[in-house]
Amino acid sequence: AESLIVRNRNTGKELTISVPTAADASKNLGFAPTHPISTAEDAKFKYEGITLTRPSNDVDDVVPHVTLHLHDKTEKTATIKISPDKESAKNALVTFVGKYNQTIAEMTILSSNKPEVVTELDYLSKDEQEAENKKLGLFFSDFTLTNGKSTLSQTVSSNYRYNEDSTITLLSQIGISTRATSGGGYNAAQMRGYLEVDEKKLDASLETDLDQIKNLFGYDSDGDLIVDNGIGYKLDQQLTAWVQS
Questions:
Q1: Can you tell me whether residue 12 is helix, strand or coil?
Q2: Whole-angstrom distance, CA of residue 240 vs CA of residue 96
Q3: How far is CA 33 from CA 25, 28, 88, 168, in A?
Q4: What is the rounded distance in angstroms from the CA atom of residue 217 to the CA atom of residue 2?
Q5: In which element (H, E) is residue 197 found?
Q6: Which segments of 36-181 does DSSP mark as H helices, in order?
Q7: Residue 46, SS3?
Q8: Helices marked H in the chain
Q9: Tens of pLDDT, residue by residue, the chain (245 residues)
């Protein structure tokens, strides 16, 4: 409490009180419990033999990129196993494929006058198809989008050998390509450059080659510790130029 309230319920009596003196000046407002069940203290723990204290039980400055949530006292040394979040990595890759396909679809619609480039997008609602049909061929005579789409396709299908020991250097090796799930034969949608995901192959790759998948999207090629190559870097480099004035 931050105040002390005294009520005089007796009529005709007057009470006086002097300024209270703190019994324990080191405690908050000078008050301290007489028989505390527990007393709040800084979290104290050992990490790799070094004793550390923190004002909170949530510690995010000891293990890089990891937050420790300290709860109960341990009787013996606790072993912490830190594993990659493969599920989040998979979701990010699937989201990437979806966003890439949406971009390719928009570029195809704007640079083509064929109605089938809209009708083959079976995930569009009727209203969305009508809206896309209105944009059909708006840039038909402008080769900027056509050439740009070709560059995007080349970026996601290129070989990225980030070091001599690389074994995963192509997106197709982890189950992402224009023909990842379908069998043989002609498929118009595949010819337009849309990516597909072979989920089983992707899951297997995430189990064994997570670091190499990371390097596919961005790596340092000249040793200056700055990412300067990879699918993500190349796509960002191209698309950033397009969305700036």
A1: coil
A2: 16
A3: 13, 11, 48, 64
A4: 56
A5: strand 196-197
A6: 86-111, 116-119, 126-134, 143-157
A7: strand
A8: 86-111, 116-119, 126-134, 143-157, 188-191, 199-208, 210-217, 231-242
A9: 567 777 778 877 887 777 766 555 555 565 677 788 877 788 898 888 899 999 999 999 998 888 888 888 888 888 888 888 899 999 999 999 999 999 999 999 999 999 999 999 988 999 999 999 999 999 998 888 899 999 999 999 999 999 999 999 999 999 999 887 766 555 666 678 899 999 999 999 999 999 999 999 999 999 999 999 999 999 999 999 888 88
Length of the chain: 245
For residues 166 and 50, the answer to whether their CB atoms sit within 8 Å is: no
The residue behind tokens 């909170």 is: 56
Q: How many CA atoms lie within 13 A of 88 on its CB side?
A: 4
* C-beta separation of 209 from 126 below 8 A: no
Count of CB atoms within 10 A of residue 175's CB? Answer: 20
β-bridge pairing 58-59 and 68-69: antiparallel
